Amino acid sequence: MAALAVIAGLSAIPSARADSYTSSNALRIVQQYSGSWSSIPSITNGNETSDAPMLGNGDVGALVMGNIDAQTFVLGKNEFWSLAQEQLKAMSRLSVSVSGMSGASFSATENIAVGEVNETASLSGNTITTKDWIQATDTTNNMLVQELSYSGSGSKTVTVSLAVGNNNTFPTTVGSSGSVLYIDVQGDSTATVGGYTSPKVRTATTVIGATATINGSSLTFTIQPGGSYTLLTCIMSNYDSSNFQSLAISNINTKAQSDINTMLGTHHTWWNNFYSESFVEIADKTVEKEWYGSLYLMACESRAGEQGPALWGNWIMEDMAWQGDYTLNYNAESPYLFTVPANHVDLAQSYDKIMLAWMPRGATNATNAGYTGYYYEGHIGPLPETNAGLFMNQKSDASFVAMPMIIRYYHTHDLTYANQVYPFLKGVAAWWQSYLVWSGTQYDDFNDATFENESYPQTDNTGSLGYIKYVLQACIDMSTELNVDSSLRPTWQNIINTLAPYPTFVRNSQTIFRCTSVGTSFNTSPKILQFAYPAAQLGTGSSSTLLTEAQNTLTQLSCWGDSHLCLTYPIAARIDYPASTILSNLDNIINGSTYHNLDIHSSGGGIEDVNEVPATVDEMLLQSCQGTIRLFNDWPSNTTATFGDLLADGAFLISAQVTGSANTVQYVRCISQKGRTAVFSNPWPGQSVEVYRNGTDTGTVSGTTFSITTSTGDTILMATAGTSYATILSRMGISGGGTMTEQCSTLAESNTAGLTYSPITGGPNGEVACKLYSTAVGQFLQFTVTGIVQGTSYDVTIGYRSDPTRGQCQLSVNGGAQPQLATLDEYQATSNWDQTQDLGTFVAGAAGTTRTFTFTVSGKNSASTGYTMAPEWIALTPL
């Protein structure tokens, strides 16, 4: 089925959702949740995580600190590094002070549904309210907006100032241009370091709705009771544009309030479309809230085309702990592990830039150590960082780097992406080919510590053994799909087959896994079980012996409050640990370690903790890492759960619901993105399963597991044998289907031969109009829509871009005339986006779930100068 979007317009997010079932549920749920404060946040400086409200667009981040009499936006950028100091640096601070408000009451809300922070300050009958956001749709020009309203008596003075970030002693310049105040900051004292360009940033600010006065490093303006004002700030670096300094000023000095209103609309649309990719709804609302909160935080930190976040994201108050770097033995990778299974591939797209750039250094490291392939340090940063010698006696860091890449590949089977990362994975495989030692019966991994700086010997650590197998298997599967390196596959397979077994020993009368076969035996950290997660070498489909040993290991680790929480809980879900124990401990962590901004801050933990809740919940609801899709495999009894469009291995979007004391699955929906065969563990053990493909009953399947062949775009609905298609839809809460709003630009299209067809982009909310340069009556433009429910009556509404050259047309369905539908007239004297016309209703007969909608020119308005047409979307509402 074509991707669907809200009528307001298309998002920049690559859409992978199926229809309004997922988006309507997701938006309904996320709107319930926010971070809230009744007192001023206290962590206003420090080298770890702040408790202040958080904003971000995947490039720039902002911490909103203090009350309106002394408010500060702490601004950071993922790319703002000191290349010389090898340290992520604090960038700049924007301070806002309203006179006469010292001692005012304070309340704030971090509205995650729309990416805003809202604050209210009141004192002696005077109230200031603010709405803050960083424009989600633009990570180049990076606009920070504060809308300020004042009610009360008497005028007040607002003073705005700019300062360099804490601990940043590099050259700084404050200046002005007209009504714009700006500050220039930089990450180094020189323009280049080691041949690489150092970062420079201009932060420029102005006011809309008042006259600004600039005096030195301050901008002031006066506000009146009943007035509304906008402080507009642009943050641009030399990495964004070589003209960043002039653009930072020109981007804001001509803006009007109408521009801000438009920006806010597109900002809200972006967040709506973001959350619409997937949803979960569970009885434990503490965990559910944190699932959405984690998505929000990661969306603030990560965006395609930008440098990915390091340890503390883009919320940098000063020189951060561990230099704020990319720590490769789990921290840097962990925030990305949940993104793709949660169907947010968009959040994963910033990951590879830093990791792949290190390949030449990794090759040099391997050569210097006497081996081949890639050997990565435990701490890295943007080149030309050296970090020489920080290997910490570990050999698997490059393999851990591969984990998010492999997960993304198996979940999407995106061969373009596979081509990008395969050379790296092949290099990691080459490292192990040269490094492992053949004992005569097995390959052993030697001098490879589970934990940093453990003394040798350390042989066959369980995490590395799992990584080796996952990397080599991915190389086999990628090379097969890419049709390369067939000669290497037998070597890779042989290593997998003959690699040392995961070491075990008896402790407290139970057989559990050791850290290594020689060396450290036990440590109360979940890293012992990394071969299960993220390395996917153990799961529900494994032998009962291995699962029991893993469960016993986790019991003895008792690491529910450990600093590796981002691994502990997903591991527990992966190995079928008792679900009630997982959720109760998650509740304890969330209630005890989560700031008001929804950031879980464990001991030593940075942004890796965003993985903890979504990865765990998604794994409990849907497991697919062993080639079989298993639903609710680790879910507590008598507990309802529903999820929509989580992404499974094989590129399948899965939706399902479970209810009742027997955990009865009500329905399963599987949407095939790549046309692969889906293998299911029967959600209804011992029963036959009714299967509908694109609305057509294809009969039943049965067995402990069963396979369903698919074509790209197929929608498979399943329930117990005898369940009707309408019943399944009713259980999904859409009773024949909710309104389907199909963007024409995403649909299969055809038209009269010889005519020019050209989509028009640039709509204020991202709209795309599909223009056909038709010149006469009888010419047509046709789109194919899937997901139609047979026998259903639909109301048809068309969205279009009007123009003086537009014609009139008649809509037919599957080649059949629909005389009951009104004639569509797209003429207007001016060109306007998102014009609508309700054409009436038609009945979908028994012709499957696909329909062609054909717009045929039937005439033109007497005032029109042509016969062109430009539909934007087709909205179908079941009646």
In short:
By secondary structure, the chain is of the alpha+beta class. It has 17 helices and 49 strands.
Question: Any overview of this molecule?
Answer:
The chain is an alpha+beta fold. 23% of the residues lie in helices and 30% in strands. The protein has 17 helices and 49 strands. The strands form 13 sheets. Strands 1-8-9-10-11-20-17-14-13 form a 9-stranded antiparallel sheet. The protein has a 7-stranded antiparallel sheet with strand order 2-3-4-7-12-19-18. A hairpin with a 3-residue loop joins strand 30 (641-648) and strand 31. Helix 9 crosses helix 11 (462-482). The radius of gyration is 29 Å and the shape is globular. The chain starts with 19 loop residues before the first helix and ends with a strand. Residues 1-18 have low confidence and may be disordered.
Shape: globular
Span between termini: 21 Å
Instruction: Report the sheet-strand fraction.
Output: 25-35%
Class of secondary structure makeup: alpha+beta
Strands of the biggest beta sheet: in what spatial order? Answer: 1-8-9-10-11-20-17-14-13
